[in-house]
Automatic annotation (TrEMBL):
Residues 8-173 form the N-acetyltransferase domain. It comes from Streptomyces griseoluteus. PANTHER family: N-ACETYLTRANSFERASE, UPF0039 PROTEIN C11D3.02C. This is N-acetyltransferase family protein. PROSITE patterns: GNAT (PS51186). Transmembrane segments: none annotated. The lineage of its organism: Bacteria, Bacillati, Actinomycetota, Actinomycetes, Kitasatosporales. Pfam families: Acetyltransf_4 (PF13420). Keywords: Acyltransferase, Transferase. GO terms for molecular function: acyltransferase activity, transferring groups other than amino-acyl groups.
Length: 175
């Protein structure tokens, strides 16, 4: 948990964050069904993902750090919803918070910054898929104006069982 009074900085992700971001994501790969990746990544394998998020444009990577220790507390991304060109005004968003920083508002800070950054971009809709059950993520997304569109039943298999994914949509101002 974050100590009381810990100040958090949200900024664009950089290559200097790659090891910490990879370790954070790998926690969710190996310990949860939140992501459907099955094997952990090396930083080298994760580098193309990081580089696909420039500091401007509709596909962003924002990182939250403790201002004192520079410890990565979490990150939020917006990326392509689908690969075909007509989907360009739609993004898929996600938030990952370090296990020792959950429940402290880090996800809220990250989404505040992400949606502020997207405000001037040509983005019309944001989508988020949430593996069920995940009450904390559902609450976060609903707080930011996402509405439930539907649930894909037993769409992924991990840890020897099938998982549902609920899909949410947020309307954004077009740039």
């Amino acid at each position: 948990m974050l100590p009381s009074g810990t100040e958090v900085q949200v900024r664009p992700g950089t290559e200097a964050d790659l090891d910490a971001l990879t370790a954070l994501y790998n926690h969710y790969v190996t310990e949860t069904a939140i992501t459907f990746d099955l094997a952990p990544f090396t930083p080298v394998e994760r580098r193309p993902w990081l580089l696909s998020h420039p500091e401007d444009g509709p596909h962003r990577l924002l990182v939250a750090t403790d201002t004192d220790s520079r410890h990565v507390l979490g990150y939020a991304t917006s990326g392509p919803h689908r690969p075909k060109a007509a989907y360009a005004p739609s993004v898929e968003t996600s938030v990952y918070v370090a296990p020792d920083a959950t429940g402290r508002g880090v996800g809220t800070l990250l989404y505040d910054a992400l949606f502020a950054a997207l405000d001037g971009e040509d983005v019309h809709r944001a989508f988020a898929g949430i593996t069920q059950p995940n009450e904390a993520s559902t609450r976060l997304h609903e707080r930011f104006g996402f509405r439930h569109l539907g649930t894909f039943g037993e769409v992924g298999r991990k840890f020897g069982r099938y998982w549902d994914v609920a899909w949410y949509q947020k309307d954004l101002k077009s740039g």
